[in-house]
Amino acid sequence: MRSRSTGGGGVAIIIAIVVIISAIVGALAWPYTINSWLMYAGKAASVRGWHGALLGFCPFVGQLTLPALVITWILMMFLG
After folding, report:
1. CB-based contact 67:73 (threshold 8 Å)
2. Cα separation of the two ends of the chain
3. What does the pLDDT look like over 5-15, one tens digit per residue?
4. What is the mean pLDDT of the chain?
5. Max alpha carbon distance in the chain (Å)?
6. Residue 2 domain-assigned?
7. Which of 19, 46, 52, 59 lies at a CB distance of 3.0 to 4.6 Å from 26, suitable for a disulfide?
8. Domain count, the chain
9. SS3 per residue for the chain
10. Residue 52 domain-assigned?
């Protein structure tokens, strides 16, 4: 009797790709979002890309990346 592979390796690769994409998007979006609000508050912009990548890894925070970016972009057009 042959044993069948459940394809766990393929699932792991897909999860790894999703995590990497989340980190890349977070590295680009979170610094813009947080630094925009810091500058609006009169503080120095201090968030770097790797900070955003770490935020992109977080389960719930990473999912808020793009909505926070869009809301910040729209609000900065009116508040700026």
Report:
1. no
2. 69
3. 666 788 889 98
4. 90
5. 70
6. no
7. 52
8. 1
9. CCCCCCCHHHHHHHHHHHHHHHHHHHHHHHHHHHHHHHHHCCCCCCCCHHHHHHHHHCHHHHHCHHHHHHHHHHHHHHHC
10. yes
